[in-house]
Amino acid sequence: MNTEHLSEAEVEEALLGFASDDRTQHAKTCAACRGKIDDFKETMALFNEASMGWSQAKSNSLSRDLAGHRTPFRVSMTFVWSSASAAVLIIAGIVGLGMHQHEQTLTAATASGRQVSSGDANEIASDNAMLQEIDAAINTSEPSPAEVYRTTSANTSHTGSVRN
């Protein structure tokens, strides 16, 4: 058995439970080394007690401060999802309307006998391709969050009435 006292590093290892068996045994039998370890544990216990007391006092004062304070507007998840859905529908409507007007213009130009130049035809084809890409991006086959979390009733028929 080693009669030398534990170094600071060995005391730390003993506190963490990483000390070798002979150093652990020495810490148990040597009053000086055990005293270092016990002093550290006592200091940590006092620190924990003080920090918990501070935290509790801070929590109580914060609760008192916030008791009279009310936020004028609170955002719920329903509001967020509804707003996001409305935005997607508006964008889809604008894109759809733009495509419809674009097709009508092209149809009217063709029906009136007006010749569409190759530059205009290329631009129209490019615009149509871009609009189709946007439409494909908006109309993904991913389920909506309402479907994923089953917030919409799975027991509704196509007329909206609830089945029994």
Q: Strand-and-helix sequence, N→C? A: HHHHHH
Give the number of DSSP strands: 0
What is the number of helices? 6
Which structural class matches the secondary elements? mainly alpha
How helix-rich are the residues, as a percent range?
over 70%
**Radius of gyration based on Cα positions:** 37 Å
Our estimate of the beta-strand percent is under 5%
* Shape designation: elongated
Residue stretches low in confidence (pLDDT < 50, at least 5 long) are 154-164
Query: How is the biggest beta sheet arranged?
Result: none
Distance between the termini: 81 Å
Q: On the 0-100 scale, what is the average pLDDT?
A: 78
Name some characteristics of this structure.
mainly alpha
Concise structural overview:
The chain has 164 residues and is mostly helical.
Describe this protein's structure:
- The chain is mostly helical and 164 residues long.
- It is 70% helix and 0% strand.
- It has six helices and no strands.
- It has helices spanning 8-16, 21-29, 31-67, 77-111, 118-138, 145-148.
- Helix 2 packs across helix 3 and helix 4 packs antiparallel against helix 5.
- The chain is elongated, with a radius of gyration of 37 Å.
- It starts with 7 loop residues before the first helix and ends in a 16-residue tail after the last helix.
